[in-house]
Amino acid sequence: MSGEVKMLDFERKSVVLVTCPKGFSPYLSDEMSRMGFKIRNELHAGVETKASLNECMRLNLWVRSGHRVLYQLKKFKAETPDQMYDQVKEMVWEKIITPDGYLTITSSVITETINDSRFANVKVKDAIVDRIREKFGRRPSSGPDMSGVIVFLYWRDDECIIYLDTSGVPLSRRGYRKLPHKAPLQETLAASLIKAAEWYGRGNFISPMCGSGTLAIEAALIALNGAPGLMREDFAFKKLPGYNEEYWDNLCIEAEDRERKKIDGRIIATDLDPEAVEAARKNARAAGVEHHIEFEVCDFRETPIPEGRGVVMMNPEYGERMGSRTKLEKIYSAIGDYFKNKCQGYKGYVFTGNMELAKFIGLKTTRRMMFYNAKIECRLLEYEIFKGSNKKRY
């Protein structure tokens, strides 16, 4: 059999879900609103809007706090795998993948009829390739490596939604982290923490205990209005029939033209470990922002605080390794002393997954914002450090 491969309509609007880790939705929603998208629904781990595939390209280019941009193809009811197979097979897949293409299925499945999401993935894959085989006499290859068309299945109870994943590799992988060093913050988490601190590039941004530099680098990208998607090449939308390379190139050129040349304030990143500072410097170089960040090897207590106002943000260890508790208590206590003695006029922020340790900071929080670092429930603690007072505020 033979058939003509048709093109997807990149101008057709549909429901689009931009996924994010739990707790990030308010910051992602704000980003998308600033980009001109009307928010349909703010979910626990994502934000819904209506957009075309062309607009999905813009979301992939500019979103800082999201992980994936999912374009809805079909929503339906199914109680069994066979019912789901029939619904998926009815879809016009010949517009989406060629017989010579490559297909990857990913999913989020919670339904009584399936114990293993991999079985659901196989049923979706079978439905798609069976239809393509019937149309063309041959079928696309499939597997896990995300090098072609990526289809995402959402299945809760009897509700199924089929999406095109236009991102592929999560948007958190900007492409600049060449040397991760120890337990680095994910880029999307770092960007969301900075947004939660309401720092948009005015004033100073100080990052003691900088590790591999993710906070400082994301701060520089925000201050410069640098599109985070400019640093990577591998987007799943490029594999779709109808993808217009010229349209994407123009989006990138426009993003480059909108990038600022200077930062209104100073960004300082320090760490006691010379290897961490070297890793941070190399990562900043890969991101194109090295010359906008001042790096220094020193104890966090020696981190310089310029005159004026700004944000001091730290991500101290909060693990419970054997024998580390007493040392960490002293570090958290020293953070409180550093804030009240060196950072007057600034806002201090500590990101931690251990609220018992946070008590040793000894200062009264003005806000406590919940985030998840992987599966660990964490808090971003805000401290307003007043000028003219060295007293601890309880």
From TrEMBL:
* Keyword Transport among UniProt keywords: no
Entry's Gene Ontology molecular function annotations: RNA binding; rRNA (guanine-N2-)-methyltransferase activity; rRNA (guanine-N7-)-methyltransferase activity
Which keywords does this Swiss-Prot/TrEMBL entry list?
Methyltransferase, RNA-binding, Transferase
Instruction: Show the InterPro entries listed in the entry.
Output: RlmKL-like_Mtase, RlmL_1st, SAM-dependent_MTases_sf, THUMP_dom
Pfam families for this protein:
RlmL_1st, THUMP, UPF0020
Transmembrane segments annotated in the record for this chain:
none
Top-level taxon:
Bacteria
Could you tell me which Gene3D superfamilies the record lists for this protein? 3.30.2130.30, Vaccinia Virus protein VP39
The THUMP domain, residue ranges:
55-166
Q: Which SMART domains match?
A: THUMP (SM00981)
The record's annotation in PANTHER family points to: RIBOSOMAL RNA LARGE SUBUNIT METHYLTRANSFERASE K/L, RIBOSOMAL RNA LARGE SUBUNIT METHYLTRANSFERASE K_L
Q: From the Swiss-Prot or TrEMBL record, give the protein name.
A: Putative RNA methylase
What species is given as this protein's source?
Answer: Maridesulfovibrio hydrothermalis AM13 = DSM 14728
